Amino acid sequence: MKHWIQAARLRTLPLSLSGIIMGAFIAKWRLSQEGGIWDWRIFVLALLVTLFYQVLSNFANDYGDGVKGTDKNRIGEAESRAVASGKITATQMRNAVILLSILSFVATVALLYVAFYPTNIREFWIFIGLGIACILAAIGYTVGKKPYGYMGLGDIFVFIFFGLVSVCGSYFLFTKSFDYDILIPASAIGMLSMAVLNLNNMRDIVNDELSGKKTLALRLGFKKAMVYEIILLQLPILLMLAFLMYNGFQEKGLYYPFIVMILIFPFMKLRRTIMKIQEPKLLDPFLKQVGILTFMMAVLTAVGLNFVN
Questions:
Q1: Is the pLDDT assigned to residue 296 strictly greater than 80?
Q2: Do 203 and 75 contact (CB within 8 A), yes or no?
Q3: Which of 30, 79, 229, 271 has the most Cβ atoms closer than 10 angstroms to its Cβ?
Q4: One cellular component GO annotation, for this chain's record (predicted)?
Q5: Contact indicator for 124, 117 with CB cutoff of 8 Å
Q6: Which one, of 211, 210, 221, lies nearest residue 280 by Cα?
Q7: Phi, psi of 97 (to 5 degrees)
Q8: CA distances from 280 to 5, 122, 191, 221, 275 (A)
Q9: Among residues 235, 221, 151, 223, which one has the least CA distance to residue 193?
Q10: How far apart are CA 135 and CA 105, in angstroms?
Q11: Can you tell me the distance from the alpha carbon of 99 to that of 120, in angstroms, rounded to the nearest whole number?
Q12: Is 48 exposed, middle or buried (0-12, 13-18, 19+ CB in 10 A)?
């Protein structure tokens, strides 16, 4: 059981939950302004679905990189990769991926049934398709003949699914509507998710070059990938400020939502620290830190908007 828990990589879970929290509580604030009802069952099921997706993704990545030999000489994290280290066989991990895929789909259907049935049948089927796309994206990063993670497309997919789909999708589950300003916090979460992936790929840049895994970080080179990282860590907090000002909280004298701006300081310190790193393997601790800061951004936004309600 210990090896399965390690393979699930629990430190990635706060990042995956951030988009759901952000979208759900922005929806809660907006529904309160319109006299709508916020369904807590949707929130709980959405969290469950996201957890299944994340663990599925981690298992699939472990399996895909393991059978391709990518993890053979990985720096810093090789011990935690179950298939590469032989702690879990490739067959066992493949079966776990299949099981998680089924559980993810069942949980997705349950979530969409509660959210849309019987009054929004068209949306139910659209989101079923979106759920299947999420499952395929979780698996396709490293699994298959042409995994998109090996072609440098991981950043784009992470932005779409961890940012746009997660935040905008969860928002729609509650409101049954789409407001264009939700794209702003969705982009903020998406960029921070890209920042985590880029740090991961910068850390593994030497091993990925040896194994033929052409990530965006490898294509850019370490120095340019570092510039890219700093941009990804800078823009999200500015986007959140833009979202709050767009909705006119400052004009209404409502300053509680701006509590999220306190994250300017830890983000500033984090950027300065990362910029000093010269050895790729020393980047590993920062993955968790960026994930926690992303989670805090979602939670502080939720708390600030709740005070408005």
A1: yes
A2: yes
A3: 229
A4: plasma membrane
A5: yes
A6: 221
A7: -65, -40
A8: 26, 48, 21, 11, 12
A9: 235
A10: 8
A11: 29
A12: middle
178 phi and psi angles, rounded to 5 deg: -125, 125
Tell me, what amino acid is at 258? F
Rounded CA separation 60/160 (Å): 19
| C-alpha 22 chain-centroid distance | 12
What pLDDT, in 10s, does the model give residues 207-257? Answer: 888 878 889 999 999 999 999 999 999 999 999 999 999 998 887 778 899
Query: Residues in the chain, how many?
Result: 309
Distances in Å between the alpha carbon of 187 and those of 88, 109, 294? 36, 26, 12
Q: What phi and psi, each to the nearest 5 degrees, are found at residue 279?
A: -95, 125
d(CA 122, CA 128): 10
Cα–Cα distance for residue pair 42/298, rounded to 1 Å:
17
27/17 Cα distance (integer angstroms): 16
The answer for residues whose C-beta is within 8 angstroms of residue 191's C-beta and 6 or more apart is 159, 163, 232, 235, 236, 239
